[in-house]
Every structure is written in C-alpha cells, then in structure tokens.
Amino acid sequence: MKATLDQIKTLREETGAGIMDVRKALTESVGDMKKAKEWLKQKGLARAESKADRETGVSYVFSYVHFNGAVGSLVKLACETDFVAKCEDFQKLGKEVAMQVASMRPETIDELLGQSYLRDSQLTIAELVKQVSGKTGENIRVVAIFVL
C-alpha cells in the first residue's frame, strides 16, 4: 500500500517524525494511522535506547511556579548539543518535566522517571524523555530536580 500525501502530512504533523519514517510507518501498517503512530513510537524508543550511553555535555535549567506562587520547581535537563537544547521539543519537555516535579514532588530523579506523566497517564516521564530523545536524535537526561 502506498501512503497518500494527505496521510503523510497528517501523521507528520501529529508526531513530528521525519518523512521517510512516516512513509515507512504507513506502509508497514497498511495505512492504519493508529498502528503507524505505534510503529513510530516504538522506533523512537529504540532509537533513544541506542543513544543512551552517549555523553550529554550541554544542559539547560527549567523552572515552573504554580499560578498562586505557593509551589515551584527547578529541573536541569542535559543533551548532547546546544542546537537540541534550544529546539522546541527539548524546551517543551523541560517545561513539562518542571511542572511534573512541582505537582508530584518526587524526592529523586528515579522516582520522577517512574511517575505517570500528568498529561497522559499512559506514559511515564522516562518514556516521555525517550520519545523526545528519539525525535531529536540525541541522548537526553534529567540531571537534577529541586522542589520549592
């Protein structure tokens, strides 16, 4: 089955995956968008796993303060290059993880990584980080967390 341009465009907009990966996912799933998304997710997680031992020399600190000012958090994420540290996906991840830390108050990074993501309980924070890692092509790690 050959993927249509509309299918490729839609799936690419929803997932942020590259054109070739989207095309292959649609071909493998015989046009089923749900199966194609799952295929892309698995490929991204596998890609992230393969990069897990690469050094993360660039870091960025994110903050979150709840609207009432009663709680806040700081999170330090690390990646391989400043290019990825500045990209939209990495920046969004940092903000989401900072919000998670303020809301759930984990005491350790391991505890944080095992928590269900607030916006999607089907994902853990570790899986969320792996998804962004797979999408950016770089190893991404949570280096430090601090709750105020």
List the defining traits of the structure above.
148 residues, 3-stranded antiparallel sheet
Describe the structure.
Helix content is 53%, strand content 20%. It contains 7 helices and 5 strands; from the N terminus they run αααββαααββαβ. The protein has a 3-stranded antiparallel sheet with strand order 1-2-5. A hairpin with a 6-residue loop joins strand 1 and strand 2. The longest helix has 18 residues, at 33-50. The radius of gyration is 17 Å and the shape is elongated.
Order of H and E elements: HHHEEHHHEEHE
- Beta-sheet strand percentage? 15-25%
Give, in spatial order, the strands making up the sheet with the most strands. 1-2-5
Mean pLDDT: 86
Number of helices: 7
Number of beta-strand segments: 5
Largest sheet: 3 strands, antiparallel
How does the overall form come out from the CA principal axes? elongated
Level of helix content?
40-55%
Instruction: Label the structural class.
Output: alpha+beta
CA(first)-CA(last) distance? 54 Å
Question: What is the CA-based Rg, rounded?
Answer: 17 Å
- Runs in which pLDDT lies below 50 for 5 or more consecutive residues are none
Short description:
It is built from 7 helices and 5 strands. With 148 residues, it is an alpha+beta fold.
Outline the secondary-structure elements.
Layout (H helix, E strand, L loop, with lengths): L4 H11 L3 H10 L4 H18 L7 E8 L6 E8 L2 H5 L1 H17 L4 H6 L1 E2 L2 E5 H12 L4 E7 L1
